[in-house]
Amino acid sequence: NSIESASFEWSAPSNIALVKYWGKKENQIPANPSISFTLNNCKTITKLEAVKKAENNSFSFDLLFEGKPKEDFKTKIQKFFERIEKYCPFLKEYHFKIDTQNTFPHSSGIASSASGMAALAMNIMSLEKAINPTISDDYFYSKASFLARLGSGSACRSVKGEVVVWGNHAEIKGSSDLFGVEFSEMHSNFKNYQDTILLVDKGEKQVSSTVGHDLMHNHPYAERRFAQAHENLSKIKAILSSGNVAEFIKIVESEALTLHAMMMTSMPYFILMKPNTLEIINKIWKFRNETQIPVSFTLDAGANVHVLYPENVKENVLQFIQDELVEFCQKGHYICDQIGNGANQL
Ligand code: PMV
């Protein structure tokens, strides 16, 4: 190819699953389908500079994370390049400078793997498009999601917005285990849906999601759980289309607790929630009961709580968070986010 040098910059957001991905097969194939809200403010911004080099028998790149070299990220990216090489045979022809930063604080307990892998995948697709300008938009985004998946499963849901399904499901047209697809039938009740992330524990996770996914092999409840995820995806599809927020809350909270129940019932077993996670959940339930304001929670594979609610109750809910939940956050920290549109070229 004739591209000697090129430079691109993309931002990609984090996402929060409503129906959770937990358990995988070979090659990052999910054991069950999942669906997520793409976020807007929690993003990774990555710049990629590519310069053709003389030899092409190894990967060559420099990495700066927030302006400084970072060895553990380098290892991750090396592995990522190895995994995607057969789909991007041009990678070894270039020396790359990768310059990346997050809009959310580094040690916040918010995983940056989804946004980070998605941002890098978008840049790699920009290089592919520079080499081969005839590729379609559809191919560009699907393959970006496909590549992001090979970096970190849930990253494939960060390429697009506002709601993305990943994994084969009979009722979602075009759905695939290989990449995420946009869910476009959303009711206006979910427009600008809010996600306020309460930072309960900013530490490194005690158990990585890789280990967690693996523990679903031979898990006593695995088969039932995978079937339930299919059922919940069918239900939430209908709910998102009809705008039934009360039913939405039931599925989303049940999914969060089921995810953690899977961790508690694996062998070895583990608990990622903290006492303050439970304090917050109970406060949310009490507030919802007393006020009928449709505020709900979901959880990632960690102790932080994502508080989900419609935009029209934002003022009330933020007041409630200030008055009753902030005391359970580490250093009182939380992040306000909402549904977003996916990756953007800068
Ligand atoms: O993408 P991974 O391998 O880090 O797994 C993410 C798993 C959960 O965040 C717990 C659920 C999900 O669907 O995002």
The kinds of small molecule bound in this structure are: (3R)-3-hydroxy-3-methyl-5-(phosphonooxy)pentanoic acid
Count of extended strands:
13
* Average pLDDT level: 96
Number of helices: 8
Organism: Flavobacterium aquaticum
Keywords: ATP-binding, Lipid biosynthesis, Lipid metabolism, Lyase, Nucleotide-binding
Pfam families: MDD_C (PF18376), MVD-like_N (PF22700)
GO molecular function: ATP binding; carboxy-lyase activity
Descriptive report:
With 346 residues, this protein is an alpha+beta fold. The chain contains 8 helices and 13 strands. Strands 1, 4, 5, 6, 7, 8 and 13 form a 7-stranded mixed β-sheet that branches. (3R)-3-hydroxy-3-methyl-5-(phosphonooxy)pentanoic acid (PMV) is lined by residues 17, 20-22, 34, 113, 152-154, 209, 259, 300-301.
Short description:
The protein has helices at 71-84, 113-131, 137-151, 209-214, 222-242, 245-264, 275-291, 314-325, and strands at residues 5-19, 24-25, 29-30, 34-52, 60-65, 94-102, 163-166, 180-182, 194-198, 296-299, 305-309, 334-338, 344-345. The chain is of the alpha+beta class.
What characteristics describe this protein?
single chain, 346 residues, alpha+beta, Ribosomal Protein S5, domain 2, seven-stranded mixed sheet, four-stranded antiparallel sheet, 8 helices, 13 strands, 23% strand, binds (3R)-3-hydroxy-3-methyl-5-(phosphonooxy)pentanoic acid, ATP binding, Diphosphomevalonate decarboxylase, lipid metabolism, MVD-like_N, lyase
